[in-house]
Amino acid sequence: MTRRPHSTTAPPAEAPPPEAEVRSPSATDTTPGWAAWAEAVAARGSAAMTGPAPGPGRGPGPGPDDGREPEVGEDWGHHETGDDDELPAEAFAASLAGLPGMGPARLAAMLDALPAAAAWARVRQGVPWREPPVVSALGRDGIRLLADWRAAAARTHPAAVWRRLVEARVGVALWGNPSYPASLVDDIDPPVIVFHRGRPEALTGGLRVAIVGTRRCTPEGMGVAFELGRDLAAEGVSIVSGLAIGIDGAAHRGALEARGAPPIGVVANGLDIVYPRVQHKLWHEVAAAGVMLSEAPLGTRPERWRFPARNRIIAALAHLVVVVESHHKGGSLHTVDQADLRGVDVMVVPGCVRNIAAGGTNALLAEGRAPVRDADDVLVALGLSRSRQAVTVEHRPPPVPRDEAVLDAVGWQPSSLDQLARRTGLALPALASAIERLLDGGWLAQRGGWYERIAQGQSERSLP
After folding, report:
1. Which end of the chain is more exposed for a tag (fewer CB within 10 A), N or C?
2. What pLDDT, in 10s, does the model give residues 252-265?
3. Overall pTM surpassing 0.85 (yes/no)
Protein backbone atom coordinates (compact mmCIF):
# COMPACT_ATOMS: atom_id res chain seq x y z
CA MET A 1 0.00 0.00 0.00
CA THR A 2 1.11 3.59 -0.47
CA ARG A 3 0.99 6.24 2.20
CA ARG A 4 -0.77 9.45 1.24
CA PRO A 5 0.76 12.82 2.07
CA HIS A 6 -0.48 14.32 5.31
CA SER A 7 -2.75 17.33 4.97
CA THR A 8 -1.90 20.31 7.14
CA THR A 9 -4.04 22.84 5.32
CA ALA A 10 -7.16 22.46 7.45
CA PRO A 11 -7.98 25.23 9.93
CA PRO A 12 -5.62 24.68 12.90
CA ALA A 13 -6.53 24.70 16.53
CA GLU A 14 -5.79 27.77 18.59
CA ALA A 15 -2.09 28.39 19.09
CA PRO A 16 -1.21 27.06 22.54
CA PRO A 17 0.23 29.50 25.04
CA PRO A 18 3.89 28.75 25.85
CA GLU A 19 3.19 28.48 29.57
CA ALA A 20 0.61 25.74 29.06
CA GLU A 21 3.03 22.83 28.93
CA VAL A 22 5.09 20.93 31.44
CA ARG A 23 7.76 18.27 31.17
CA SER A 24 6.60 14.88 32.32
CA PRO A 25 8.46 13.72 35.43
CA SER A 26 8.00 10.07 34.52
CA ALA A 27 10.79 10.08 31.95
CA THR A 28 13.09 8.41 34.47
CA ASP A 29 10.51 5.86 35.65
CA THR A 30 12.18 2.79 34.17
CA THR A 31 11.84 -0.90 34.72
CA PRO A 32 15.07 -2.69 35.70
CA GLY A 33 15.40 -4.42 32.32
CA TRP A 34 14.97 -1.27 30.27
CA ALA A 35 17.22 0.72 32.56
CA ALA A 36 20.00 -1.87 32.32
CA TRP A 37 19.87 -1.83 28.55
CA ALA A 38 19.88 1.97 28.45
CA GLU A 39 22.94 2.01 30.69
CA ALA A 40 24.68 -0.47 28.43
CA VAL A 41 24.02 1.71 25.39
CA ALA A 42 25.24 4.72 27.29
CA ALA A 43 28.43 2.92 28.28
CA ARG A 44 29.18 2.00 24.67
CA GLY A 45 28.50 5.54 23.48
CA SER A 46 30.48 7.13 26.37
CA ALA A 47 31.13 10.81 25.75
CA ALA A 48 29.37 10.81 22.40
CA MET A 49 26.02 10.42 24.14
CA THR A 50 26.32 12.61 27.22
CA GLY A 51 25.76 16.04 25.77
CA PRO A 52 23.35 18.76 26.92
CA ALA A 53 19.60 18.51 26.72
CA PRO A 54 18.19 19.31 23.29
CA GLY A 55 16.44 22.46 22.29
CA PRO A 56 12.82 22.52 21.02
CA GLY A 57 12.19 20.14 18.17
CA ARG A 58 15.63 18.46 18.34
CA GLY A 59 16.71 15.10 19.53
CA PRO A 60 19.35 14.83 22.24
CA GLY A 61 22.93 15.20 21.11
CA PRO A 62 26.42 15.79 22.39
CA GLY A 63 28.47 18.92 22.17
CA PRO A 64 31.25 20.80 23.89
CA ASP A 65 30.75 22.19 27.38
CA ASP A 66 30.90 25.81 26.23
CA GLY A 67 27.56 25.55 24.41
CA ARG A 68 28.87 27.01 21.15
CA GLU A 69 27.50 26.08 17.72
CA PRO A 70 29.54 23.69 15.53
CA GLU A 71 31.79 25.12 12.88
CA VAL A 72 31.72 23.95 9.28
CA GLY A 73 33.05 20.42 9.07
CA GLU A 74 33.04 19.90 12.83
CA ASP A 75 31.19 16.80 14.07
CA TRP A 76 30.01 16.75 17.67
CA GLY A 77 27.63 13.85 17.54
CA HIS A 78 29.10 10.99 15.53
CA HIS A 79 32.26 9.78 17.16
CA GLU A 80 33.08 6.28 16.10
CA THR A 81 31.34 4.28 18.81
CA GLY A 82 30.01 1.45 16.65
CA ASP A 83 26.53 1.94 18.10
CA ASP A 84 24.79 2.71 14.80
CA ASP A 85 25.30 -0.85 13.57
CA GLU A 86 23.47 -2.13 16.65
CA LEU A 87 20.48 0.21 16.49
CA PRO A 88 17.05 -0.72 15.10
CA ALA A 89 15.42 1.26 12.33
CA GLU A 90 13.17 2.95 14.88
CA ALA A 91 16.16 4.79 16.37
CA PHE A 92 17.00 6.39 13.03
CA ALA A 93 13.35 7.15 12.24
CA ALA A 94 12.92 8.85 15.62
CA SER A 95 16.07 10.88 14.95
CA LEU A 96 14.72 11.96 11.57
CA ALA A 97 11.37 12.89 13.13
CA GLY A 98 13.15 15.21 15.56
CA LEU A 99 14.85 17.31 12.87
CA PRO A 100 13.69 20.95 12.65
CA GLY A 101 10.92 21.42 10.11
CA MET A 102 10.32 17.68 9.72
CA GLY A 103 6.59 17.01 9.36
CA PRO A 104 4.61 13.82 8.74
CA ALA A 105 4.53 14.23 4.95
CA ARG A 106 8.28 14.80 4.64
CA LEU A 107 9.13 11.92 6.95
CA ALA A 108 6.75 9.57 5.13
CA ALA A 109 8.21 10.51 1.74
CA MET A 110 11.77 9.94 2.94
CA LEU A 111 11.00 6.58 4.55
CA ASP A 112 9.11 5.50 1.45
CA ALA A 113 12.25 6.24 -0.56
CA LEU A 114 14.90 4.75 1.73
CA PRO A 115 15.25 2.63 4.86
CA ALA A 116 15.52 4.76 7.98
CA ALA A 117 19.27 4.22 8.52
CA ALA A 118 20.04 5.09 4.91
CA ALA A 119 17.81 8.16 5.04
CA TRP A 120 19.61 9.34 8.20
CA ALA A 121 23.00 8.82 6.53
CA ARG A 122 21.91 10.87 3.54
CA VAL A 123 20.66 13.70 5.75
CA ARG A 124 23.85 13.73 7.82
CA GLN A 125 26.02 13.81 4.70
CA GLY A 126 23.94 16.57 3.13
CA VAL A 127 23.31 14.56 -0.04
CA PRO A 128 20.44 16.11 -2.07
CA TRP A 129 17.24 14.15 -2.51
CA ARG A 130 16.23 13.52 -6.11
CA GLU A 131 13.22 11.25 -5.55
CA PRO A 132 10.17 13.23 -6.80
CA PRO A 133 7.94 12.53 -3.74
CA VAL A 134 10.66 13.77 -1.40
CA VAL A 135 11.42 16.82 -3.53
CA SER A 136 7.71 17.65 -3.58
CA ALA A 137 7.42 17.23 0.20
CA LEU A 138 10.43 19.48 0.79
CA GLY A 139 8.80 22.27 -1.19
CA ARG A 140 10.37 25.64 -1.93
CA ASP A 141 12.39 25.58 1.30
CA GLY A 142 14.17 22.38 0.35
CA ILE A 143 17.70 23.79 0.14
CA ARG A 144 17.41 25.55 3.49
CA LEU A 145 15.84 22.49 5.11
CA LEU A 146 18.62 20.20 3.94
CA ALA A 147 21.23 22.57 5.36
CA ASP A 148 19.36 22.84 8.66
CA TRP A 149 18.96 19.07 8.85
CA ARG A 150 22.65 18.43 8.17
CA ALA A 151 23.62 20.84 10.94
CA ALA A 152 21.12 19.29 13.36
CA ALA A 153 22.21 15.75 12.45
CA ALA A 154 25.80 16.66 13.32
CA ARG A 155 24.63 17.39 16.86
CA THR A 156 22.39 14.32 17.16
CA HIS A 157 23.36 10.71 17.77
CA PRO A 158 20.64 8.11 17.07
CA ALA A 159 21.93 5.99 19.96
CA ALA A 160 21.29 8.89 22.34
CA VAL A 161 17.83 9.40 20.88
CA TRP A 162 17.10 5.71 21.38
CA ARG A 163 18.45 5.76 24.92
CA ARG A 164 16.21 8.70 25.77
CA LEU A 165 13.15 6.84 24.47
CA VAL A 166 14.01 3.74 26.48
CA GLU A 167 14.57 5.77 29.65
CA ALA A 168 11.25 7.57 29.12
CA ARG A 169 9.50 4.20 28.60
CA VAL A 170 8.21 5.41 25.24
CA GLY A 171 7.81 2.76 22.58
CA VAL A 172 8.19 3.33 18.85
CA ALA A 173 6.32 1.61 16.03
CA LEU A 174 7.13 2.10 12.36
CA TRP A 175 4.57 1.65 9.61
CA GLY A 176 5.13 -1.76 8.03
CA ASN A 177 6.65 -3.37 11.12
CA PRO A 178 4.95 -6.03 13.26
CA SER A 179 4.48 -3.79 16.31
CA TYR A 180 2.64 -1.11 14.32
CA PRO A 181 -1.02 -0.74 15.44
CA ALA A 182 -3.19 -2.90 13.21
CA SER A 183 -5.99 -0.32 13.50
CA LEU A 184 -3.86 2.21 11.58
CA VAL A 185 -2.15 -0.03 9.02
CA ASP A 186 -4.76 0.38 6.28
CA ASP A 187 -5.66 4.00 6.97
CA ILE A 188 -5.67 6.39 4.01
CA ASP A 189 -3.05 8.54 5.71
CA PRO A 190 -1.27 6.47 8.39
CA PRO A 191 1.39 8.09 10.55
CA VAL A 192 4.72 6.65 9.45
CA ILE A 193 5.92 6.57 13.05
CA VAL A 194 3.92 6.18 16.26
CA PHE A 195 5.31 6.91 19.71
CA HIS A 196 3.40 5.30 22.55
CA ARG A 197 3.44 5.19 26.33
CA GLY A 198 1.37 2.79 28.37
CA ARG A 199 -0.23 -0.37 27.05
CA PRO A 200 -0.29 -0.50 23.22
CA GLU A 201 -2.43 -3.65 23.41
CA ALA A 202 -5.25 -1.25 24.37
CA LEU A 203 -5.52 -0.58 20.62
CA THR A 204 -6.51 -4.17 19.91
CA GLY A 205 -9.78 -5.90 20.59
CA GLY A 206 -13.18 -4.37 21.16
CA LEU A 207 -14.64 -1.20 19.69
CA ARG A 208 -13.43 2.40 19.92
CA VAL A 209 -15.48 5.60 19.99
CA ALA A 210 -13.94 9.05 19.69
CA ILE A 211 -15.62 11.68 21.86
CA VAL A 212 -14.60 15.18 20.82
CA GLY A 213 -15.74 18.71 21.39
CA THR A 214 -14.80 22.22 22.37
CA ARG A 215 -12.53 23.34 25.18
CA ARG A 216 -14.95 26.22 25.82
CA CYS A 217 -17.82 23.95 26.77
CA THR A 218 -20.74 24.36 29.13
CA PRO A 219 -21.06 22.43 32.40
CA GLU A 220 -23.92 20.49 30.80
CA GLY A 221 -21.76 19.51 27.85
CA MET A 222 -18.94 18.42 30.13
CA GLY A 223 -21.38 16.33 32.16
CA VAL A 224 -22.72 14.61 29.04
CA ALA A 225 -19.19 13.83 27.85
CA PHE A 226 -18.30 12.36 31.23
CA GLU A 227 -21.41 10.16 31.29
CA LEU A 228 -20.87 8.94 27.73
CA GLY A 229 -17.24 8.09 28.47
CA ARG A 230 -18.18 6.29 31.68
CA ASP A 231 -21.12 4.32 30.31
CA LEU A 232 -19.41 3.30 27.06
CA ALA A 233 -16.21 2.23 28.80
CA ALA A 234 -18.29 0.16 31.23
CA GLU A 235 -19.70 -1.68 28.22
CA GLY A 236 -16.24 -2.48 26.84
CA VAL A 237 -15.96 0.41 24.36
CA SER A 238 -12.64 2.26 24.46
CA ILE A 239 -12.79 6.06 24.44
CA VAL A 240 -10.44 7.88 22.06
CA SER A 241 -9.81 11.58 22.55
CA GLY A 242 -7.18 14.30 22.55
CA LEU A 243 -6.92 15.01 26.31
CA ALA A 244 -7.69 18.69 25.85
CA ILE A 245 -9.52 20.53 28.60
CA GLY A 246 -13.29 20.57 28.22
CA ILE A 247 -15.10 17.79 26.38
CA ASP A 248 -12.04 15.61 25.63
CA GLY A 249 -10.83 15.50 29.21
CA ALA A 250 -14.32 14.94 30.60
CA ALA A 251 -14.84 11.91 28.35
CA HIS A 252 -11.60 10.33 29.49
CA ARG A 253 -12.32 11.02 33.15
CA GLY A 254 -15.61 9.21 32.75
CA ALA A 255 -13.87 6.28 31.08
CA LEU A 256 -11.37 6.08 33.93
CA GLU A 257 -14.13 6.09 36.54
CA ALA A 258 -15.77 3.10 34.87
CA ARG A 259 -12.59 1.01 35.14
CA GLY A 260 -13.73 -0.70 31.97
CA ALA A 261 -12.26 -0.60 28.47
CA PRO A 262 -8.81 1.04 28.32
CA PRO A 263 -8.76 4.74 27.32
CA ILE A 264 -6.75 5.92 24.32
CA GLY A 265 -5.23 9.40 24.22
CA VAL A 266 -3.81 10.97 21.06
CA VAL A 267 -1.76 14.14 21.49
CA ALA A 268 -0.08 16.68 19.20
CA ASN A 269 3.27 16.95 20.96
CA GLY A 270 6.02 14.78 22.43
CA LEU A 271 4.97 12.33 25.13
CA ASP A 272 7.42 13.93 27.56
CA ILE A 273 5.57 17.28 27.47
CA VAL A 274 2.13 17.54 29.03
CA TYR A 275 -0.20 19.92 27.22
CA PRO A 276 -2.21 21.53 28.62
CA ARG A 277 -0.41 21.30 31.93
CA VAL A 278 -3.63 21.25 33.94
CA GLN A 279 -4.19 17.78 32.46
CA HIS A 280 -1.00 16.43 34.02
CA LYS A 281 -2.76 13.95 36.30
CA LEU A 282 -5.13 12.83 33.54
CA TRP A 283 -2.22 12.15 31.16
CA HIS A 284 -0.61 9.74 33.58
CA GLU A 285 -3.88 8.08 34.50
CA VAL A 286 -4.69 7.43 30.84
CA ALA A 287 -1.19 6.04 30.20
CA ALA A 288 -1.49 3.78 33.25
CA ALA A 289 -4.95 2.45 32.35
CA GLY A 290 -4.60 2.52 28.55
CA VAL A 291 -2.22 4.11 26.07
CA MET A 292 -1.01 7.53 24.95
CA LEU A 293 -0.08 8.02 21.29
CA SER A 294 1.72 10.69 19.29
CA GLU A 295 3.52 10.93 15.97
CA ALA A 296 5.70 13.71 17.43
CA PRO A 297 9.10 12.76 18.90
CA LEU A 298 10.17 13.54 22.45
CA GLY A 299 10.82 17.21 23.07
CA THR A 300 8.25 18.38 20.50
CA ARG A 301 6.09 21.21 21.76
CA PRO A 302 2.50 21.74 20.59
CA GLU A 303 2.47 23.68 17.34
CA ARG A 304 -0.62 24.99 15.56
CA TRP A 305 -0.37 22.67 12.54
CA ARG A 306 0.03 19.54 14.62
CA PHE A 307 -3.53 19.58 15.96
CA PRO A 308 -5.30 18.92 12.64
CA ALA A 309 -2.70 16.22 11.93
CA ARG A 310 -3.47 14.70 15.34
CA ASN A 311 -7.21 14.77 14.61
CA ARG A 312 -6.83 12.48 11.62
CA ILE A 313 -5.31 9.82 13.90
CA ILE A 314 -8.25 10.14 16.30
CA ALA A 315 -10.66 9.64 13.39
CA ALA A 316 -8.62 6.73 12.02
CA LEU A 317 -8.72 4.87 15.34
CA ALA A 318 -12.45 5.32 15.89
CA HIS A 319 -15.26 3.05 14.78
CA LEU A 320 -17.60 5.97 15.53
CA VAL A 321 -17.14 9.66 16.34
CA VAL A 322 -19.40 11.51 18.80
CA VAL A 323 -19.34 15.32 18.94
CA VAL A 324 -20.70 16.67 22.21
CA GLU A 325 -20.32 20.46 21.84
CA SER A 326 -18.59 22.44 19.12
CA HIS A 327 -18.57 26.03 18.01
CA HIS A 328 -19.16 26.83 14.35
CA LYS A 329 -15.41 26.84 13.67
CA GLY A 330 -14.31 24.41 16.35
CA GLY A 331 -11.32 22.12 15.89
CA SER A 332 -13.52 19.09 16.45
CA LEU A 333 -15.15 19.80 13.08
CA HIS A 334 -11.83 18.92 11.50
CA THR A 335 -12.09 15.52 13.18
CA VAL A 336 -15.55 15.22 11.61
CA ASP A 337 -14.06 15.97 8.18
CA GLN A 338 -11.39 13.32 8.72
CA ALA A 339 -14.02 10.80 9.82
CA ASP A 340 -16.03 11.52 6.67
CA LEU A 341 -12.96 10.86 4.51
CA ARG A 342 -12.64 7.45 6.16
CA GLY A 343 -16.31 6.51 6.07
CA VAL A 344 -16.55 6.64 9.88
CA ASP A 345 -20.04 7.57 11.10
CA VAL A 346 -20.43 10.77 13.11
CA MET A 347 -23.12 11.22 15.76
CA VAL A 348 -23.95 14.44 17.57
CA VAL A 349 -25.31 15.47 20.96
CA PRO A 350 -28.03 18.11 20.40
CA GLY A 351 -27.69 21.45 22.15
CA CYS A 352 -29.87 24.43 22.93
CA VAL A 353 -30.22 26.78 19.97
CA ARG A 354 -29.15 29.65 22.26
CA ASN A 355 -25.96 27.85 23.29
CA ILE A 356 -23.09 29.20 21.18
CA ALA A 357 -20.97 26.21 22.22
CA ALA A 358 -23.49 24.02 20.38
CA GLY A 359 -23.59 26.06 17.16
CA GLY A 360 -21.38 23.62 15.29
CA THR A 361 -23.05 20.50 16.65
CA ASN A 362 -26.53 21.76 15.80
CA ALA A 363 -25.31 22.53 12.28
CA LEU A 364 -24.14 18.92 12.01
CA LEU A 365 -27.59 17.76 13.07
CA ALA A 366 -29.11 19.95 10.37
CA GLU A 367 -26.92 18.08 7.86
CA GLY A 368 -28.64 14.87 8.88
CA ARG A 369 -26.21 13.41 11.42
CA ALA A 370 -27.73 10.99 13.90
CA PRO A 371 -28.43 12.41 17.39
CA VAL A 372 -27.04 11.01 20.65
CA ARG A 373 -29.13 11.20 23.82
CA ASP A 374 -27.17 8.71 25.90
CA ALA A 375 -24.78 5.78 25.63
CA ASP A 376 -27.58 3.48 24.46
CA ASP A 377 -27.87 5.44 21.19
CA VAL A 378 -24.15 4.93 20.58
CA LEU A 379 -24.27 1.25 21.45
CA VAL A 380 -27.18 0.70 19.06
CA ALA A 381 -25.22 2.45 16.29
CA LEU A 382 -22.34 0.07 17.00
CA GLY A 383 -24.66 -2.92 16.82
CA LEU A 384 -24.43 -3.55 20.56
CA SER A 385 -26.69 -3.40 23.54
CA ARG A 386 -26.00 -2.96 27.22
CA SER A 387 -23.61 -5.66 28.55
CA ARG A 388 -23.58 -7.48 25.22
CA GLN A 389 -20.69 -5.78 23.46
CA ALA A 390 -18.73 -7.46 20.70
CA VAL A 391 -15.39 -9.01 21.63
CA THR A 392 -12.46 -9.59 19.32
CA VAL A 393 -11.37 -13.23 19.55
CA GLU A 394 -7.68 -13.97 19.97
CA HIS A 395 -6.91 -16.84 17.60
CA ARG A 396 -3.28 -17.32 18.59
CA PRO A 397 -2.56 -20.05 21.12
CA PRO A 398 -1.68 -18.48 24.48
CA PRO A 399 2.01 -18.59 25.31
CA VAL A 400 3.00 -21.11 27.94
CA PRO A 401 3.66 -19.52 31.35
CA ARG A 402 7.46 -19.85 31.11
CA ASP A 403 7.41 -17.96 27.78
CA GLU A 404 5.33 -15.04 29.07
CA ALA A 405 8.39 -13.58 30.82
CA VAL A 406 10.22 -13.50 27.49
CA LEU A 407 7.27 -11.83 25.78
CA ASP A 408 7.15 -9.22 28.55
CA ALA A 409 10.90 -8.65 28.18
CA VAL A 410 10.47 -7.90 24.48
CA GLY A 411 7.85 -5.29 25.35
CA TRP A 412 6.98 -3.11 22.40
CA GLN A 413 10.48 -2.20 21.25
CA PRO A 414 12.71 -4.21 18.89
CA SER A 415 15.00 -6.30 21.09
CA SER A 416 18.14 -8.32 20.39
CA LEU A 417 18.98 -11.75 21.78
CA ASP A 418 21.61 -10.25 24.09
CA GLN A 419 19.15 -7.71 25.47
CA LEU A 420 16.55 -10.41 26.14
CA ALA A 421 19.14 -12.54 27.87
CA ARG A 422 20.02 -9.67 30.20
CA ARG A 423 16.38 -8.80 30.88
CA THR A 424 15.22 -12.36 31.57
CA GLY A 425 18.35 -13.87 33.10
CA LEU A 426 17.73 -17.05 31.08
CA ALA A 427 20.48 -19.20 29.67
CA LEU A 428 20.78 -18.88 25.91
CA PRO A 429 19.47 -22.40 25.09
CA ALA A 430 16.33 -21.85 27.20
CA LEU A 431 15.84 -18.37 25.79
CA ALA A 432 16.26 -19.56 22.21
CA SER A 433 13.66 -22.28 22.75
CA ALA A 434 11.18 -19.77 24.22
CA ILE A 435 11.73 -17.39 21.30
CA GLU A 436 11.19 -20.21 18.82
CA ARG A 437 7.87 -21.10 20.45
CA LEU A 438 6.75 -17.46 20.43
CA LEU A 439 7.72 -17.13 16.76
CA ASP A 440 5.79 -20.28 15.88
CA GLY A 441 2.78 -19.09 17.88
CA GLY A 442 2.62 -15.75 16.06
CA TRP A 443 3.55 -13.68 19.12
CA LEU A 444 6.93 -12.52 17.81
CA ALA A 445 8.44 -11.64 14.46
CA GLN A 446 12.13 -11.60 13.58
CA ARG A 447 13.69 -8.82 11.54
CA GLY A 448 17.40 -9.39 11.07
CA GLY A 449 18.83 -9.69 14.56
CA TRP A 450 15.80 -8.05 16.19
CA TYR A 451 12.68 -9.57 17.71
CA GLU A 452 9.41 -7.65 17.76
CA ARG A 453 6.09 -8.29 19.43
CA ILE A 454 3.14 -8.68 17.05
CA ALA A 455 0.02 -6.75 17.97
CA GLN A 456 -3.34 -8.50 18.17
CA GLY A 457 -5.11 -8.42 14.82
CA GLN A 458 -1.76 -8.17 13.01
CA SER A 459 0.20 -11.04 11.55
CA GLU A 460 3.60 -11.33 9.97
CA ARG A 461 1.99 -12.50 6.73
CA SER A 462 -0.18 -9.36 6.55
CA LEU A 463 2.77 -7.00 6.74
CA PRO A 464 3.63 -5.07 3.58
Report:
1. C
2. 999 999 999 999 99
3. no
